[in-house]
Structure formats: structure tokens, C-alpha cells
Amino acid sequence: MKLKAYELYRIRLVLFLLVGLAIESRAQLEPLSTQYINSQLIINPAYTGVRNAFSMNLVARHQWMGIKGAPVNYWVAAHSPLNKSKVSLGGAFQSYQAGPIQNHRLNLYYAYLVRLRHDMFLSMGVSATGDYFNLSNDKLEVIDQDDPSFINDVTNAFSPNFGAGAFVYTPTFYFGVSMPYVLENKYKVGEVSNVVMQTRRSLYLSTGYGFGLGKKVYLKPSMLWRMAGKSSSFDINMQMLYEESFSAGVSYRIDQAVAFLAGFRINKTFQIAYSYDLPIGNVGITKGSHEITLNFDSFSMIRRNKDRRFLRKKKEEEGSMRSIRYF
Questions:
Q1: Which three-class secondary structure string do you get for 207-270?
Q2: Rounded to whole angstroms, how far apart are CA atoms 245 and 266?
Q3: Mean pLDDT within 254-278
Q4: What is the Cα–Cα distance from 103 to 154, expressed in whole angstroms?
Q5: Rounded distance, CA 25 to CA 33, Å?
Q6: What are the chain's domains?
Q7: Taking 70 as the threshold, does the pLDDT of residue 150 lie above it?
Q8: Higher confidence at residue 291 or residue 304?
Q9: What does the pLDDT read at residue 284?
Q10: Per-residue model confidence as pLDDT tens digits over 219-232
Q11: What does pTM read for this prediction?
């Protein structure tokens, strides 16, 4: 299918922005869900509307259980295509706490969909973000109470940000590139202006492929590469999906952690998944991390739109899943 001139312009603009941002990227990593397949909106605004339903995603992650002040992260998001259009909108709220540090983040998403062929789409997205940061000094064990660095709390410090991404997908494959936070915001406290927390930019590359082993079983290998200046991490994930209902697998974050995952699709609308991370290598942590995600997809709230659906050829493609939702 031949792309229209304005669609080609959109593609070139987003790709130019992403490449330019990647060249300037210098960062440490942002918090991330181990179940990135179920929560891709966290890392890529182009995932907005890709599930072709009114979708909600809830994530609860407790790191290093048993350690006082360990990070706790909650995430809730909703996104949906607009009826009879290729535009999708969404929003998300994230609450993060580690010891005395609290951060609340609000994200707004916009994405535009382009059909590349009968069973392949390109989604391009942007996001706007607002962070509310708080540091409570009364929760710190301060040796010198007169230290000017710990006299005042940082209360409701606000900073804006923005991001961009692209996401290509078929019934059996996806590839995404994104930079969800472009600006490097710093939060300072005290008369000496110590930096206590910093939002830094990083580039994410994600890909996955699903293929059938018979009519009921699919294998879903996937990978996620997070690049942040001289730092990077690489996740390798392998899951098995049975009858598009039950999944189980293992994930390996090179030299950092191994995770065990399981998920169950209760019905066409609800899906629940659980993962347990076990640190490995020389990370200095021995406690595991728990993560639970819940996905909700409603099809009654949007109208059928053939421009957003996979179009089948006369011969049914074997070994392909019916929807990107099953990734």
C-alpha cells in the first residue's frame, strides 16, 4: 500500500527526532517493569492505542522484599484509539517511593497509526510528562542536625518533560524504539545544592516474535535493550503461551537478575500476570522483587475500524496470533 505524502512526513519527522535524541543520550536507567511485554506504554508512547481497544494497565512492583526503604512502584494507565480515526490518546499515573524519596508522575500520550502493508502497522507517539518530587528529611537518620543540606524538605518540586517513540508490529512480530524522557531534570536540596535525584534520558530498543508449535502452543521470545550513555542493560525473555490463555516463562537481565513469569487470561477482557526477580552476580542485593500486572481491554467502548485491523489474505497464515494483545 502506497503511503500518502503527509504520512511519510510524519515518519521522517519522528525517526529524525529519535536518532537525534539517541546521539545526545547520556543517562542512568529509569525504573522499569520486568513484565515489559505487558506494560510497554511505560517505555514507549507509541504503544498508545496499539491494543485496538480501550485498555487499562495496572502494575505494582515491590523491589528487594524485606529491605527497609526498598523501592516501591505503582503504575496505572489508560489508552484507546479514537473512533473512526488513526489517532490514539492515553494517560498514566506513576507513584514511586524509595526511603524518604517520593515521586509522582503524570503522563499524557498521543499516537498516530500508519498501515505499512495488509498485516503491518507503524505507530508513532509522543508524550508530555509532569513530575512532582518530594524528599522528607524527617525520615533520614541525620548525624549532624545543623548540616545545611538537611534543613529543608523538597516539597512538591515540579518539572516537565517529554518523550517520543515508534512501534512497528504484525500478528507475530514487534519492534519499538523510544526515549520516554528527554530532559535531564535535577532535584536539589540544601544551601550547597546537593543533587538528591535526577531524571536522565535513555534509549530503549524492544523486539519480540511469536511462532506456533501446533495449533495451541506459541513461543514468544523477546528482548529489551536499555542504553544510557556508557551504561546499558539487556533483557532476554522467553515465554510459552497455551491456547492464548495461559503463559509461563523466564527472563534474564544479563549479570543482574533472573525472573520467573506466569500469566493467565481470565477472559477476553482481563489478564493477570506475576513475576519474581532474583538478583544474581555482584549487584550486592540478595532479596527478590515481586511484580503484578493487570490488563483490561474493553471492545464495547470503541467502534470497529478496518483501518486499524490486520487484513488477512485468502489463505490463513499459520503460526500467527490473532492480536498484538497476546504478546
A1: EEECEEECCCEEEEEEEEEEEECCEEEEEEEEEEEECCCEEEEEEEECCCEEEEEEEEECCCCE
A2: 7
A3: 92
A4: 11
A5: 21
A6: 5-326 (2.40.160.40)
A7: no
A8: 291
A9: 63
A10: 999 999 988 767 78
A11: 0.82
For residue 75 the three cell numbers come to: 503504575
Task: Select the more confidently predicted residue: 28 or 71.
Answer: 71
CA-to-CA dists, residue 301 to 52, 54, 165, 195, 295, angstroms: 11, 7, 26, 45, 16
Backbone angles phi, psi at 48, to 5 degrees: -55, 125
User: Residue 13: what pLDDT?
Assistant: 46
pLDDT band per the 50, 70, 90 thresholds, residue 317: low
Chain length of the chain:
327
Q: What is the distance of C-alpha 33 from the center of its chain?
A: 7
pLDDT at 271 over 80: yes
Q: What is the pLDDT of residues 199-254, one digit of tens each?
A: 777 899 999 998 888 888 999 999 999 887 677 889 999 999 998 899 999 999 98
CA 91 to mean position of chain CA atoms = 13
| Beta pairing class for 72-81 and 87-98 | antiparallel
Give the span between the Cα atoms of 120 and 1, in whole angstroms.
Answer: 11
Closest residue by Cα to residue 204 from 30, 70, 66, 53 = 30
Q: How far is 30 from 18, CA to CA, in rounded Å?
A: 18
Kindly give, in sequence order, each residue whose CB lies less than 8 Å from that of residue 199, ignoring residues fewer than 6 positions away.
30, 131, 159, 161, 181, 183, 184, 185, 186
Q: How many angstroms separate the CA atoms of 53 and 90, rounded?
A: 12
